Amino acid sequence: MTIIDFRLRPPVGQFLSTLMYAQGERRDGFTRTVGFEPSPAAQQQSMEMTLAEMDTAGVGQGVVVGRLAGMLGSISNDDVLALMNGHGDRFIGAASIDPTNRISACRSIDDSMAAGFRLINIEPGAYPVPMYADDRRLYPIYAHCEDRNIPIILMVGGTAGPDLSYSDPIRTDRMLADFPNLKVVLAHGGWPWVTQILHIAFRRSNVYLSPDMYFSRMAGWEEYVKAADGFLADRMLYASSFPFCPIKGYKEWFESLPIRQENLCKIMGGNASRLLGLGS
Protein backbone atom coordinates (compact mmCIF):
# COMPACT_ATOMS: atom_id res chain seq x y z
CA MET A 1 0.00 0.00 0.00
CA THR A 2 1.26 3.45 -0.94
CA ILE A 3 0.35 5.85 1.86
CA ILE A 4 -0.80 9.26 0.63
CA ASP A 5 -0.78 12.02 3.23
CA PHE A 6 -3.45 14.41 1.98
CA ARG A 7 -2.23 17.51 3.85
CA LEU A 8 1.50 17.94 4.31
CA ARG A 9 3.28 21.29 4.52
CA PRO A 10 7.07 20.91 4.07
CA PRO A 11 9.49 23.39 5.69
CA VAL A 12 10.61 25.10 2.52
CA GLY A 13 9.99 28.28 0.53
CA GLN A 14 6.95 30.35 1.44
CA PHE A 15 5.75 27.74 3.92
CA LEU A 16 8.40 29.04 6.31
CA SER A 17 6.74 32.46 6.49
CA THR A 18 3.32 31.04 7.44
CA LEU A 19 2.12 30.90 11.05
CA MET A 20 2.75 27.17 11.32
CA TYR A 21 6.51 27.72 11.02
CA ALA A 22 6.91 31.37 12.00
CA GLN A 23 5.18 30.74 15.33
CA GLY A 24 6.72 27.41 16.26
CA GLU A 25 5.91 27.59 19.97
CA ARG A 26 2.22 28.07 19.23
CA ARG A 27 2.29 25.19 16.72
CA ASP A 28 4.02 22.86 19.15
CA GLY A 29 1.46 23.72 21.80
CA PHE A 30 -1.32 22.54 19.50
CA THR A 31 0.67 19.40 18.65
CA ARG A 32 0.86 18.47 22.32
CA THR A 33 -2.81 19.34 22.85
CA VAL A 34 -3.81 16.63 20.37
CA GLY A 35 -1.50 14.09 21.98
CA PHE A 36 1.74 14.14 20.00
CA GLU A 37 5.29 15.31 20.49
CA PRO A 38 6.42 17.84 17.88
CA SER A 39 8.38 16.60 14.90
CA PRO A 40 12.09 17.49 15.01
CA ALA A 41 11.84 18.08 11.25
CA ALA A 42 9.26 20.79 11.89
CA GLN A 43 11.17 22.34 14.78
CA GLN A 44 14.44 22.42 12.86
CA GLN A 45 12.68 23.42 9.63
CA SER A 46 14.58 20.72 7.76
CA MET A 47 13.40 19.46 4.39
CA GLU A 48 15.90 16.60 4.53
CA MET A 49 14.52 15.48 7.89
CA THR A 50 10.97 15.78 6.60
CA LEU A 51 11.69 13.45 3.69
CA ALA A 52 13.43 11.04 6.06
CA GLU A 53 10.39 11.09 8.37
CA MET A 54 8.14 10.33 5.41
CA ASP A 55 10.38 7.39 4.52
CA THR A 56 10.39 6.06 8.08
CA ALA A 57 6.60 6.30 8.25
CA GLY A 58 6.16 4.68 4.84
CA VAL A 59 4.44 7.76 3.42
CA GLY A 60 5.03 7.59 -0.30
CA GLN A 61 3.36 10.84 -1.36
CA GLY A 62 2.10 14.03 0.21
CA VAL A 63 -0.49 16.50 -1.07
CA VAL A 64 0.95 20.03 -0.91
CA VAL A 65 -1.57 22.85 -1.02
CA GLY A 66 -1.10 26.29 -2.49
CA ARG A 67 -3.13 28.98 -0.82
CA LEU A 68 -4.11 32.62 -1.15
CA ALA A 69 -4.85 33.59 2.43
CA GLY A 70 -4.69 36.60 4.67
CA MET A 71 -3.47 36.04 8.24
CA LEU A 72 -2.73 32.34 7.60
CA GLY A 73 -0.10 33.16 4.98
CA SER A 74 0.00 32.47 1.25
CA ILE A 75 1.79 29.76 -0.73
CA SER A 76 2.23 30.44 -4.44
CA ASN A 77 1.55 27.83 -7.07
CA ASP A 78 5.14 28.34 -8.24
CA ASP A 79 6.42 27.20 -4.85
CA VAL A 80 4.24 24.10 -4.95
CA LEU A 81 5.30 23.36 -8.53
CA ALA A 82 8.96 23.61 -7.54
CA LEU A 83 8.35 20.96 -4.88
CA MET A 84 6.57 18.73 -7.37
CA ASN A 85 9.32 19.06 -9.97
CA GLY A 86 12.17 18.80 -7.49
CA HIS A 87 11.21 15.53 -5.81
CA GLY A 88 9.96 13.19 -8.51
CA ASP A 89 6.42 12.08 -7.72
CA ARG A 90 6.82 12.60 -3.97
CA PHE A 91 4.50 15.60 -3.83
CA ILE A 92 1.06 16.05 -5.37
CA GLY A 93 0.05 19.65 -5.97
CA ALA A 94 -3.21 21.44 -5.21
CA ALA A 95 -3.22 24.85 -6.90
CA SER A 96 -4.71 28.00 -5.40
CA ILE A 97 -6.76 30.60 -7.27
CA ASP A 98 -7.77 34.22 -6.82
CA PRO A 99 -11.58 34.06 -6.87
CA THR A 100 -12.13 37.78 -7.37
CA ASN A 101 -11.72 37.54 -11.15
CA ARG A 102 -13.71 34.69 -12.68
CA ILE A 103 -11.95 34.68 -16.04
CA SER A 104 -8.41 34.72 -14.69
CA ALA A 105 -9.31 32.17 -12.01
CA CYS A 106 -10.62 29.70 -14.59
CA ARG A 107 -7.58 30.29 -16.80
CA SER A 108 -5.32 29.68 -13.80
CA ILE A 109 -7.11 26.39 -13.11
CA ASP A 110 -6.54 25.17 -16.66
CA ASP A 111 -2.90 26.27 -16.64
CA SER A 112 -2.28 24.57 -13.31
CA MET A 113 -3.76 21.28 -14.41
CA ALA A 114 -1.65 21.41 -17.59
CA ALA A 115 1.43 21.94 -15.42
CA GLY A 116 0.75 18.76 -13.44
CA PHE A 117 -1.41 19.83 -10.51
CA ARG A 118 -4.12 17.32 -9.58
CA LEU A 119 -6.71 19.46 -7.82
CA ILE A 120 -7.65 23.00 -6.80
CA ASN A 121 -7.66 24.48 -3.31
CA ILE A 122 -10.43 26.90 -2.36
CA GLU A 123 -10.48 28.52 1.10
CA PRO A 124 -13.47 30.89 1.03
CA GLY A 125 -13.23 32.36 4.52
CA ALA A 126 -9.42 32.67 4.48
CA TYR A 127 -9.23 34.86 1.38
CA PRO A 128 -8.07 38.48 1.93
CA VAL A 129 -11.73 39.39 1.43
CA PRO A 130 -13.54 36.48 3.17
CA MET A 131 -16.35 34.63 1.42
CA TYR A 132 -18.75 31.88 2.41
CA ALA A 133 -18.72 28.51 0.68
CA ASP A 134 -21.99 29.29 -1.12
CA ASP A 135 -20.92 32.77 -2.24
CA ARG A 136 -22.18 33.22 -5.79
CA ARG A 137 -18.82 34.66 -6.86
CA LEU A 138 -17.40 31.16 -6.39
CA TYR A 139 -20.09 29.40 -8.41
CA PRO A 140 -18.52 29.89 -11.87
CA ILE A 141 -15.28 28.48 -10.46
CA TYR A 142 -17.04 25.45 -8.98
CA ALA A 143 -18.81 24.93 -12.30
CA HIS A 144 -15.54 25.15 -14.23
CA CYS A 145 -14.02 22.41 -12.07
CA GLU A 146 -17.16 20.27 -12.21
CA ASP A 147 -17.28 20.46 -16.00
CA ARG A 148 -13.64 19.34 -16.26
CA ASN A 149 -13.83 16.67 -13.54
CA ILE A 150 -11.24 18.52 -11.43
CA PRO A 151 -11.49 17.76 -7.68
CA ILE A 152 -11.32 20.61 -5.23
CA ILE A 153 -10.24 20.96 -1.62
CA LEU A 154 -12.69 23.18 0.26
CA MET A 155 -11.60 24.50 3.66
CA VAL A 156 -14.76 24.83 5.74
CA GLY A 157 -13.47 23.60 9.09
CA GLY A 158 -11.00 24.60 11.77
CA THR A 159 -9.90 28.22 11.38
CA ALA A 160 -11.96 28.65 8.25
CA GLY A 161 -12.51 32.39 8.50
CA PRO A 162 -12.87 35.40 10.79
CA ASP A 163 -15.56 33.66 12.87
CA LEU A 164 -17.34 30.33 13.18
CA SER A 165 -19.97 31.21 10.58
CA TYR A 166 -17.41 30.56 7.81
CA SER A 167 -17.56 26.84 8.55
CA ASP A 168 -21.37 26.80 8.65
CA PRO A 169 -22.34 23.31 7.39
CA ILE A 170 -25.64 24.54 5.97
CA ARG A 171 -23.81 26.76 3.48
CA THR A 172 -21.53 23.85 2.60
CA ASP A 173 -24.54 21.62 2.03
CA ARG A 174 -26.18 24.16 -0.27
CA MET A 175 -23.05 24.42 -2.37
CA LEU A 176 -22.70 20.62 -2.61
CA ALA A 177 -26.32 20.27 -3.68
CA ASP A 178 -25.78 22.80 -6.47
CA PHE A 179 -22.75 20.90 -7.83
CA PRO A 180 -23.56 17.20 -7.39
CA ASN A 181 -20.85 16.02 -9.79
CA LEU A 182 -18.05 18.10 -8.33
CA LYS A 183 -15.72 16.01 -6.16
CA VAL A 184 -15.15 18.02 -2.99
CA VAL A 185 -12.63 17.24 -0.25
CA LEU A 186 -13.67 18.95 2.97
CA ALA A 187 -10.38 19.91 4.63
CA HIS A 188 -10.29 19.81 8.44
CA GLY A 189 -13.35 17.56 8.29
CA GLY A 190 -15.83 20.39 8.76
CA TRP A 191 -14.76 20.52 12.42
CA PRO A 192 -16.29 21.40 14.86
CA TRP A 193 -19.58 20.55 13.14
CA VAL A 194 -18.77 16.83 13.27
CA THR A 195 -22.26 15.32 13.42
CA GLN A 196 -23.63 17.78 10.89
CA ILE A 197 -20.82 17.27 8.39
CA LEU A 198 -21.12 13.48 8.66
CA HIS A 199 -24.83 13.83 7.93
CA ILE A 200 -23.97 15.90 4.86
CA ALA A 201 -21.40 13.31 3.73
CA PHE A 202 -24.07 10.62 4.12
CA ARG A 203 -26.42 12.60 1.88
CA ARG A 204 -23.91 13.93 -0.67
CA SER A 205 -21.94 11.22 -2.43
CA ASN A 206 -19.57 13.79 -3.98
CA VAL A 207 -18.03 14.56 -0.56
CA TYR A 208 -14.65 13.29 0.63
CA LEU A 209 -13.75 14.00 4.23
CA SER A 210 -10.24 14.87 5.43
CA PRO A 211 -10.37 15.65 9.18
CA ASP A 212 -6.52 15.68 9.33
CA MET A 213 -5.35 17.22 12.63
CA TYR A 214 -8.93 17.39 13.97
CA PHE A 215 -9.17 13.59 13.67
CA SER A 216 -6.81 13.32 16.62
CA ARG A 217 -8.54 13.51 20.00
CA MET A 218 -10.45 16.72 19.33
CA ALA A 219 -14.11 16.96 20.36
CA GLY A 220 -16.18 14.55 18.29
CA TRP A 221 -13.21 12.64 16.84
CA GLU A 222 -14.72 9.27 17.77
CA GLU A 223 -17.53 9.92 15.29
CA TYR A 224 -14.99 10.37 12.50
CA VAL A 225 -13.53 6.97 13.42
CA LYS A 226 -16.93 5.27 13.29
CA ALA A 227 -17.65 6.80 9.89
CA ALA A 228 -14.20 5.83 8.61
CA ASP A 229 -14.89 2.19 9.43
CA GLY A 230 -18.46 2.42 8.20
CA PHE A 231 -20.39 4.30 5.55
CA LEU A 232 -17.55 6.70 4.71
CA ALA A 233 -14.76 4.13 4.29
CA ASP A 234 -14.59 4.85 0.55
CA ARG A 235 -14.51 8.64 0.99
CA MET A 236 -12.36 9.27 4.04
CA LEU A 237 -8.82 10.60 3.42
CA TYR A 238 -5.77 10.22 5.63
CA ALA A 239 -3.87 13.44 6.38
CA SER A 240 -1.39 14.31 9.13
CA SER A 241 -1.56 18.09 8.66
CA PHE A 242 2.20 18.20 9.22
CA PRO A 243 3.78 20.20 10.85
CA PHE A 244 0.86 20.39 13.29
CA CYS A 245 1.11 16.63 13.73
CA PRO A 246 4.30 14.60 13.21
CA ILE A 247 4.27 12.44 10.09
CA LYS A 248 5.56 9.32 11.83
CA GLY A 249 3.72 9.72 15.13
CA TYR A 250 0.40 10.45 13.43
CA LYS A 251 0.76 7.42 11.17
CA GLU A 252 1.52 5.08 14.05
CA TRP A 253 -1.42 6.45 16.04
CA PHE A 254 -3.79 6.25 13.08
CA GLU A 255 -2.99 2.59 12.49
CA SER A 256 -3.92 1.84 16.11
CA LEU A 257 -7.50 3.07 15.65
CA PRO A 258 -10.39 0.57 15.61
CA ILE A 259 -10.62 0.61 11.82
CA ARG A 260 -10.54 -2.65 9.88
CA GLN A 261 -7.43 -3.28 7.81
CA GLU A 262 -9.29 -3.26 4.50
CA ASN A 263 -10.68 0.17 5.33
CA LEU A 264 -7.31 1.47 6.53
CA CYS A 265 -5.89 0.60 3.12
CA LYS A 266 -8.60 2.66 1.44
CA ILE A 267 -8.33 5.63 3.79
CA MET A 268 -4.54 5.81 3.88
CA GLY A 269 -4.00 5.62 0.13
CA GLY A 270 -6.57 3.88 -2.02
CA ASN A 271 -9.26 6.56 -1.84
CA ALA A 272 -6.83 9.38 -2.62
CA SER A 273 -5.32 7.44 -5.51
CA ARG A 274 -8.75 6.87 -7.02
CA LEU A 275 -9.88 10.47 -6.46
CA LEU A 276 -6.75 11.90 -8.07
CA GLY A 277 -6.55 9.37 -10.90
CA LEU A 278 -3.16 8.05 -9.86
CA GLY A 279 -3.82 4.41 -10.75
CA SER A 280 -2.88 1.46 -8.58
Automatic annotation (TrEMBL):
Superkingdom in the source lineage: Bacteria
Location of the Amidohydrolase-related domain: 38-278
Entry-linked InterPro entries: ACMSD, Amidohydro-rel, Metal_Hydrolase
Single GO molecular function: carboxy-lyase activity
UniProt keyword annotations, A-Z: Hydrolase, Lyase
Coiled-coil residues: none
Name of the protein described by the UniProt record: Amidohydrolase
